[in-house]
Amino acid sequence: MGAQILTSKFGAELQSFKVDGEEKLHQGEECLDENGKVYWNRRFELLFPTVGKCKQNQTIINGKNYEMQINGFAKDLDFEPITKLDNYHSYIFKSKGRLIEKFPFEFSLIVTYRLNENKLTTKYKVVNESEMDMPFGIGSRPALKIDSRELEKGNYYLEFEEDEEKIHFLYLVDGLVATDYAKNIVLINKKQILLNSNTFKNDALIMKGIKSRKISLKNKNIDKPIFTVDFGDFPYLAIWSKPKAPFICIEPWMTTPDNVNGSGVFRQKNNILLLPPKKEYECKYSIEFF
């Protein structure tokens, strides 16, 4: 039967990723908790032109204040389909002056999903159509299904492909990066992060200084990985979920939320990307199920 994908032009979001008929993607508004409430109504979120939260949900660009919601606005845009094949879906959004009140730059944003057997590669391309340098952040939040009972038992763990000597876990305060590193995260044998139902009580785990380029979700009772994420050149990796939820997000990030002591100026954000006029930027990552 192989693998199949379904996508939507709304946010250019992946809606379904099935392997041999089994759904691997969190099903958003269809997935309810014990009280009948939706855990999280997204499935595969595109983060652009910011990742995470800006201070007071605002940012300063060219001396002017702009409202900026958490993870930016691309997730709520209507994209246009370019190509739709069984194993290749591609979408584009062209700003064309429609977003000047939100983001004072002209740009094109292209999202591509390529399926190769049980491996899905997601690629983002940003084109600066403006006459000035364009600062931006970009990242991804794919929600992958897990068994919440196995999570509560503490059977899940994440494993890097290499020993991690210099990894740092960032500490969040109300969604903003604090000046101290998180101290309660234990990296077992320099490679493994143990997961349980309390892991995400203080929001996402955000890591930097990672030597590995791959991370796998494993179960103590199963020999092979459940899935592996190859996050390529992304310098940050976030792990997030809702308490007791039946999904986990392994999130490649190019940038981070604002710092608690940051200036609020968009161009001064940590690791902000700066794209010259008429130039392109690309990044990609992949998820493989076993």
Can you walk me through this structure?
It is a single chain. With 290 residues, the chain is mainly β. The chain has a single domain (3-289), classed as Beta-galactosidase, Chain A, domain 5, CATH 2.70.98.10. The protein has 1 helix and 24 strands. The protein has a 10-stranded antiparallel beta sheet with strand order 7-8-9-10-24-20-19-13-17-16. It has a 7-stranded antiparallel beta sheet with strand order 4-12-22-21-18-14-15, with no helix packed on it. Strands 1-2-3 form a 3-stranded antiparallel beta sheet, with no helix packed on it. The two termini are 14 Å apart. The relative contact order is 0.20. The mean pLDDT is 94.
Uncertain stretches:
none
Helix count equals: 1
- What is the end-to-end distance? 14 Å
By helix and strand content, what is the structural category? mainly beta
Q: Which fold does the CATH topology refer to? A: Beta-galactosidase, Chain A, domain 5
Q: Under the CATH scheme, which class?
A: Mainly Beta
Give a quick account of the main beta sheet: strands, pairing sense, barrel closure: 10 strands, antiparallel
- Computed over alpha carbons, the radius of gyration is 19 Å
How much helical structure, as a percent, in the residues? under 10%
What sequence of helices (H) and strands (E) makes up the elements? Answer: EEEEEEEEEEEEHEEEEEEEEEEEE
Number of β-strand runs: 24
The order of strands across the largest sheet is 7-8-9-10-24-20-19-13-17-16
In round numbers, the mean pLDDT is: 94
**CATH architecture annotation name:** Distorted Sandwich
Give the DSSP E fraction (strand runs of 2 or more residues): 35-45%
Shape, per Cα inertia axes? globular
Count of discrete structural domains: 1
